Amino acid sequence: MYKRQLFGLSATLLPQFADADEQDPLNFIVGVSRLHDDNLFRQSSRKKSENITTAYAGIRLDKIYAQQRFKFDFTLTANRYQNFGILDFNAKDYKAAWLWTLTPFLTGTVSLDRRQSLNSFQDFQGGSLVNIRNISTSETQHFEADYSPHNIWHLLGGVTRSTQKNTNNSTDFIGQDSYTTNSLDAGVKYNFRSGSSVTVMGHGRSGENSNAVFDNAFDEREVETKLDWIVSGKSRVNMRAAYLSREYDQFSIHDYSGLVGNIDYSWTPTGKLRLILSAATSLSSYQTTGSSYTRVNSLSISPLYAFSDKITMRAQAGISERTFLSEGVVPESDRVDWTKTASFGVEWAPLRSVTIGGNLERSSRDSNVNGLDYTDTTVGVNANLFL
Please, what is the average pLDDT of the chain? Predict the structure, then answer.
């Protein structure tokens, strides 16, 4: 949540950058935003407000050569805090991909990407509000191949390496640790004549938590089914259902397994209105003295309305339940957090190369653990130039 509030600029503007000029293989973007957050550290009392200025510059290359396609995005972002300068940091994000074609029947992708952000203050508990910067750097290297003689049945395979490193200058403990995983991926996909498709994939992963207090090395298995269903010309359903199982080498009390997935329904009744309804459930490791992992169940609705080709309105409302679970951990956690969010934004494009926008967001958390409730309001404005 906090990442979205701080870097909503990137989330809402980079897609526009991608559409800046599809005819040009090379594009540039520069932008700046100003955000006021009335509860920076997500505290139930003694709130600290902050004004955050974010400026970034980026370059995008999208070049087709023969049957090959090369894509590269690089963004340098400077984040500056008015009152808590210790949180200042520069993020270097990039994504590179080679969409290769060996024959008309055999294609694939080689890609790598890197993202940096400030970890959410929701999971900092206790401790001082001094020296609490925690930067997350995630990197992914991926190779995939797709063999399909008739573009109906597809044989899919690949390998993926993912790392996440938390650079923490605080003594506060975060249950979501740095990690590295290596994955072997294989599956099949079927394309229907209507344009819909169904995919079944299996993933075998081995990983290690870098600085885990309790347990580090693990093996993970996941089997998933994905459905992309074109219901009509105005509606579409994307669904993913999977069974996930993780086993740790040392302590079985940190193992977890269960169903995960999401369903998104997109409805476009007119050329100006789009509505997306989403539901999701997920599992993730969270090793503390009282829990081994968490389950998050969420619901959201996201309408978008284009008043004209220059003015667009976006809104979102969501609710999520986060349960902290354990299998044999003593003392056992019974913590449950309910989080609610609502946001509204307007974007104006007076010129083809210029966008100006504003956003208002309200969020709150209700927890059955004393001292973890909070409310937060952010207000932001931004301006961007595409070249």
Answer: 89
